[in-house]
Design goal:
By secondary structure, the protein is an all-alpha fold. The protein contains eight helices and no strands. Helix 5 packs antiparallel against helix 6 and helix 6 packs across helix 8. About 9% of the residues have low confidence.
């Protein structure tokens, strides 16, 4: 008895096999790309994105290279100083606290940023009114900045 190596049921195997091979190559690439895009869109900080100021919020994609390479604390400080022109120091201090809570690496710079905000608030509002906004954000650094600007 002679066994045949070809089976009549495998005749339509050509196009299906090509489609299968194409999917085997393309599908992993599509999955990796979609997963990567999904991960970049997630707010990993745990806070609502509209309530937290991050250093990346102020650096536009078209900004010069030196602006993109600035330290996050410098970007945050400048952002908060700009915000101080339009809003009272209480709002700005809240945003500083939210930024530090959302990005703990900024905590070591919190006191110097708060002192800078205190000095700027004194220039805008005067020492008495600026001092009225002082509260324990980053210890008492805001009040210390008001005091140093007043002296």
């Amino acid at each position: 008895m002679k066994h045949s190596t070809t089976h009549p049921t495998r005749r339509g195997r050509g196009p299906a096999r090509r489609i299968g091979r194409s999917l085997a190559l393309v599908l992993p690439v599509v999955l990796v790309l979609s997963g990567t895009l999904a991960v970049t869109r997630v707010n990993w900080s745990g806070s609502p994105s509209h309530s937290m100021l991050t250093a990346s919020d102020t650096v536009a994609a078209g900004a010069p290279a030196h602006a993109r390479s600035r330290a996050p604390q410098d970007v945050l400080r400048d952002q908060l100083l700009t915000e101080l022109q339009d809003k009272d120091p209480g709002v700005v201090l809240t945003h500083l606290q939210q930024a530090v809570n959302g990005r703990p690496s900024l905590a070591e710079h919190c006191a110097s940023i708060a002192r800078t905000l205190g000095r700027a608030a004194t220039n805008i509002y005067g020492p008495a009114r600026a001092q009225s906004y002082a509260r324990p954000v980053c210890d008492t650094s805001f009040a210390s900045g008001v005091q140093s600007a007043h002296n």
